[in-house]
Amino acid sequence: IGIISMETTPTPNPPPTEEEKTESNQEVANPEHYIKHPLQNRWRPSSFDIDSLKTRQVNILVISNFVVVGNCWSCLYNHIQLSSNLMPGCDYSLFKDGIEPMWEDEKNKRGGRWLITLNKQQRRSDLDRFWLETLLCLIGESFDDYSDDVCGAVVNVRAKGDKIAIWTTECENREAVTHIGRVYKERLGLPPKIVIGYQSHADTATKSGSTTKNRFVV
Ligand code: MGP
C-alpha cells in the first residue's frame, strides 16, 4: 500500500513562486500556500489496484498536518485522482496515521462502516463529490466529540456498483456510530427517504450471502 508521509510541523506560507503560478494557469498549485489551521490528526492515503495485484503509490500529497481553508479545498481536490477515473477493482482510502485500511487492524477489528452503495449511474453523477465530501468530513473532524471513533474511509470502484464507507473503531459505541451516521448522511446531502446502514467488519468478514446485516441505520 502506497503511503505518503505527512509533515508534522507547521511551516510558514511563502508566496507562490512564478513557476507555480504559471504551472496551473495562474492558480496556485501547492495547497500548502493556503494552509491555516493545524489538523488534529495525521492522515495517510493509500490505494490498491486489484488488476495488477500490486499496490501503487498515490501520486499526490493530499494533506500535510494542516487544514487547507477557504475556496482552496479545490486545490486539495486537484491533488487527488478522481475516484471515477480509477479502474474498476481499485480501492482508495484515507486513514488516520497508524491505522491500516484492513479489518484486522487493532483499531478496526471491533469496528464497522457506514456504507454508501452507489448504482452504476452514480459513478458519473455522485461518486467524486461524495468521496470529496467524505474526505472533508474526515480531515475536518466533522463528527464533534465522536471524531475520535473515526478510523478512515474507503472508496471501492467496482463494475457492479461503487461503494464509499467511513470506518469507525467500535461497533458497540451506539452513540458515536449513530451520530457519525447522521452527520455523514446530512453532509452527503442524502434525502431522508434514503437509508444508509452500518455493518460491523466481523459481520462483513463472515457473511454468507451477498449482503451483511445492518447494526444501525439512519
Ligand atoms: P471488498 O474489496 O471490500 O468488496 O471485498 P468487493 O470487491 O465489492 O466484494 P464483496 O465481497 O463486498 O462483494 C472483497 C474481498 O476482499 C472480501 O470478500 C474479502 O475476501 C477481502 N477483503 C476486503 N477487505 C476490506 C478485507 C480486509 O480488511 N481484510 C481481509 N483479510 N480481507 C478483506
UniProtKB/TrEMBL annotation:
Keyword Cytoplasm among UniProt keywords: yes
Subcellular location: Cytoplasm; Nucleus
Gene3D superfamilies, per the entry: RNA Cap, Translation Initiation Factor Eif4e (3.30.760.10)
Source superkingdom: Eukaryota
GO BP, sorted A to Z: mRNA transport; regulation of translation
Keyword Transport on entry: yes
A GO-annotated cellular component: nucleus
Pfam families attached to this UniProt entry: IF4E
GO molecular function, one term: RNA 7-methylguanosine cap binding
Disordered as annotated region, ranges: 1-28
Keyword field: Cytoplasm, Initiation factor, mRNA transport, Nucleus, Protein biosynthesis, RNA-binding, Translation regulation, Transport
Residue stretches spanning the membrane: none
SUPFAM superfamilies per UniProt: eIF4e-like
PANTHER family: EUKARYOTIC TRANSLATION INITIATION FACTOR 4E, EUKARYOTIC TRANSLATION INITIATION FACTOR 4E RELATED
Family under the similarity heading: Belongs to the eukaryotic initiation factor 4E family.
Protein name, entry field: Eukaryotic translation initiation factor 4E
